[in-house]
Write a structure and sequence with these properties.
The structure is a single chain. By secondary structure, the chain is an all-beta fold. Helix content is about 0%, strand content about 35%. The chain contains no helices and 13 strands. The strands form 4 sheets. Strands 7, 8, 9, 10 and 11 form a 5-stranded mixed beta sheet that branches. It has a 4-stranded mixed beta sheet with strand order 2-1-6-4, with no helix packed on it. The mean pLDDT is about 90.
């Protein structure tokens, strides 16, 4: 009898059982279709002893087990002024799917990508499963940028001449909620008109 075992002691393949005459030579090829593992003995050979014999063939972790790395990007909200934080709604960046290969029962070696406008979150490597189903998910937050609004001769309630707002990558630029004012002088009174170099469609 020949039994086939994985590193954790579980069965790698159905055992081989046959009857031989004492002194008869046997030669049995080990099953090779055990995903992610390689038999330590490709072929078990020998001569049948006078008593029943059980031979164990350990299967070792192979070096060509597939695993996948998925890259998910944070989407903008409906009006593009904010972002969605629920990772279940992040979108798969299909152009950046990766298929890796590694040794079964070792850790993955997934690497985050350099994607314009996004910053990867921390992620955890996983154990590579023998069946090739291991997947590592990497989530990316959308980057934020600062927009400076200059009131020039005017000012905001804080007496500052500038205000700032933030915008997400590819998001809609929204001006400050507060409208700046300018004090009247001896000749004129002033009313805010509009922000130069900005329209409601700017991103």
């Amino acid at each position: 009898k020949i039994v086939y075992k994985l590193p954790d002691g579980s069965t790698a393949a159905a055992p081989y059982e046959a009857q031989y005459k004492v002194g008869e030579q046997y030669s049995v090829a080990s099953p090779a279709d055990v995903s992610g593992y390689t038999p330590s003995l490709a072929t078990v050979t020998g001569y049948m002893p006078a008593t029943d014999v059980t031979i164990e063939v350990p299967y070792l972790a192979g070096a060509a087990t597939k695993y996948k790395v998925n890259h998910y990007l944070q989407p903008l909200n409906s009006d593009k002024t904010g972002v969605i934080t629920d990772t279940a709604q992040f979108t798969l960046y299909s152009a950046e799917e990766d298929t890796y290969y590694g040794m079964t029962d070792t850790q993955t070696a997934a690497v985050a990508k350099n994607i314009t406008g996004f910053a990867p979150r921390e992620f955890t490597q996983k154990n590579i499963q023998a069946d090739g189903t291991t997947e590592v998910d990497i989530y990316y937050d959308r980057k934020q940028y600062t927009v400076t609004w200059n009131a020039v001769y005017g000012k905001f309630a804080t007496n500052e001449t500038v205000a700032t707002s933030t915008v997400y990558y590819e998001g809609k630029i929204a001006p400050p909620a507060e409208i700046p004012t300018r004090d009247a002088d001896n000749d004129y009174t002033y009313a805010f008109d509009a922000w130069q170099n900005w329209t409601e469609t700017d991103t």
